[in-house]
Each structure stands twice: as C-alpha cells, then as structure tokens.
Design goal:
Two copies of one chain form a homodimer.
Chain A lengths: L12 H21 L6 H7 L4 H7 L3 H21 L7 H18 L1 H12 L6 H24 L8 H17 L1 H12 L4 H15 L6
Chain A binds a DNA duplex through helix 1 and helix 3.
Amino acid sequence: MSADTDPGRPTTRIQREKQEVILEAALEIFSQYGFRGSTIDQIAEAAGMSKPNLLYYFKSKEDILAPILARILDTWLEPLRELDAEGDPLPELQSYIRRKLEMSRDYPRESRLFANEMLRGAPDFSNVLHNELKDLVDEKAKIIKGWMARGKIAKCDPYHLIFAIWSTTQHYADFDIQVRAVLGKERGGDGRFEDAARFLDQLFLHGLSPKK
Amino acid sequence: MSADTDPGRPTTRIQREKQEVILEAALEIFSQYGFRGSTIDQIAEAAGMSKPNLLYYFKSKEDILAPILARILDTWLEPLRELDAEGDPLPELQSYIRRKLEMSRDYPRESRLFANEMLRGAPDFSNVLHNELKDLVDEKAKIIKGWMARGKIAKCDPYHLIFAIWSTTQHYADFDIQVRAVLGKERGGDGRFEDAARFLDQLFLHGLSPKK
DNA sequence: AAATTTTTTGACCGATTGGAAAAATTCTAG
DNA sequence: CTAGAATTTTTCCAATCGGTCAAAAAATTT
C-alpha cells in the first residue's frame, strides 16, 4: 500500500521517521531553489533515498510542499499570537520585534521559502491569507489600537506597523546575502543580529528625531 | 548573422525594437515565476515571437536575464545616489523613503525579480553586491554618520537604517499579495501606498513613543 | 529588379523532468 | 518458519526543457 496522505495519520514508526526526513530535506532544497527550481531527485538525494521511494511517501511534488508551508505559517505567526492585550504595550511590541528577529536568525530557510511563495503570488495558500492570517492581524490590530486610544503608544496605522515589523525583521533572513555583502567581513558576522536588534529597538521606540 | 551580444551595440532599428520587446516580456515572466521557473517559450510567447526567433536575439536564457538585472540594480540605487550630504538631513531621508516607496508602487516587477535573485543567493551578481553596492552604501553611511555627529538626527547604525528603509518600502512590492489580503478590500486599494507613506514618515521620525 | 543581408520559421535533438508500474526486498505477525 | 503486508529498487515513459540548424521569407542595398 502507498503511505501518502490518508485521512488516518502515518501509521508505522518508519513512516513517521521517513516523512520527517523528507520534509526536512525538502525545506532545505525548496528554500534554496524555489518550488519550480527544485527537483524531486534533489530532494530525494538530500533525504538519502531514491525518487520512487520518496514518491511512495508523498505522491507528488506539491504534496511535499503543502505540509511544509502549513507548518511554516503556523510557526511564523506564533509570536504575533502571543501579543498580549494585558501586557505593557511598549515592552510587548519590543518583545514581538525581538522574537521575530530571532526567528529570522534561527529559521532563515523557512523565511526564505515563505518569501518565495509570496513572490509567486502565494498560489497555494491565498485562502489562508484571506482567512486565518487576516483574522489574526485584525484581532491584534484592534489590541494595538486600544493601546493608542489609551495613550500608551503613539497613534499610527496598526496594520502598517505590523508590516514594518515583519519586513524589517525578515529582511535579515531573506536578503541575507545582500546584508552580509554590504556589512563586509568585520561587521557581517554573527554580531549583525545584535546590531540589528539594537537598531530596531531604537527605530520603533524613537525614530530618527534628534534628542533635544 | 546572429544579432546577439557583440561588442558593438544593436545595429538595426528592428534589432533595438525587438530586444526591447523581449526584455519587457522577460521581466514580466521572470518576476512572476523566477529564473528557473520561467521558460524561454513563455517569454517568447509574451514577446509575440517564436522561441528560435527569440534565441536569435539572445543566445541563451541567462543572456536575457543579465541585462535586466543590470538595469534593475541601476534604477534601484538611483534614489540612494541622490542622497545629498549638503541637504537638510531629515527631509533628505524622508524624501529617500518616499522615493523608494514610489518605486515599489510603480515598479513592482523589478522589485520582485530583484528579491527573487536575493533569495537564490544572487549567483549572478554577487560581485556587484560586494563592490558597487557596498561602496555606495559605505559612502552614504558616512554622510549619515556626519549628520548624527552634528546632532541633526539621532545616533544609530546607518547601515541598519538603510536596511530598514529598503525592507519597509520594498515589502509593499514583494509581499503585495499578503499586504492586500490583510488590508482587505476597502483598505487594500490604491490608497494603501499613501497610508504606508504616512506611517513610514511617522515611524522613521518619531517611532512609537507616546507624545508627552 | 537583382543581389545580399537580416529576420523568421519549422523541424528536430539530447537532457531532464515528474511520475507510473511492477518486481524485488524487507519487515512483521502468527 | 511462513504468509502477508510494508518498503525499496529497477525500469520505464511521456512531456517539457534549453538550444541547434537549415531553409524560407523579409528587408535592405546596389
């Protein structure tokens, strides 16, 4: 019998293990070459098995991508989910920014694959964007608006604020090549994330206006 | 004779015209599907000619991409080149941010193709990144540092400031699908760029600290 | 209008692709 | 140990890919 997507979850131990190996290999390949730029052979080799063997676990190339994307989106939104209406507004936002930056540092492959899908127009999960994602952002935007109304943070568009947090932090994963090239050898090392954290903290807190 | 890359530039009128048509079509296709995801047939069809006819003007797929990337990078950096050391610091930076945002609005295909290349690790112009780009950013970072030293703007890392400007503005082109999905029908229309401009102006000027 | 050069087309090629089929092997339960 | 199920490998295929080539068709020059 084939082992692919049945209503019932993977049954045997070997199925769970191999599926995990394949998804890890596929993430590596997809994030480097994009969906169409990756071949099943590449993924199979990275997973240490033959192509037909891989196709025994996932019956098509798209069936490999789908669970990866689902998992990424879930992981990706976790920091935003934790934004707490009861917390102290500014530290709450700072902590969100820091966590997003840490994700760019620790999971660059996920970030790049996600960006790749966005560039392609997100053909596979545009419904998720319009439902789960929009709902979550709507909810958190409302919280942020409440903070603004109570004078806890400056008034601004909460949606564009969230976009700014996403873009500035993800930039360090998606444009890593460019960032390291521009920073050069000395400043482009591991310390760049701490420098980025410091800068973003100041930007989102005070902007560029000089102190008086 | 073939019409492709000779030391001498395109000679005939028809060559200039067709090469332009091809590059425009290739930008459209490449920006949608990425380099490996695009086929010469697709580009040829978009350009209204047969594949062998296209290959008469550009002898390989990479030979089509190269001039597009060169042009994009040049266009892309123009706003930064214009950052004027003699200008008024804050308005100078605001104007830079605004121009970059306008480019995301007016040239989203170019932005997405550029992002695509970055995600791939910029195999074709990593040398440009380490030379022309780094030199330009170094020069402008020095200008910005001068402004900080004279107390005209707040002290911060000028490199990460430039990254923040790039990422926040380009986000509206590269993640357009996501931005529009999250903003919804009413707020996701043409007005989103004006909202973004207003928000970015405030973010880079004052950040989120509440007014006292 | 004839000669020559440039442009376009149709037919084709070898390599690679995603995937199917079935045999061969390994694992597991009785 | 043996039957049956699960896993893996070998072989193969049709479609698509980037690219070539020679000949036809336009365009240009003389």
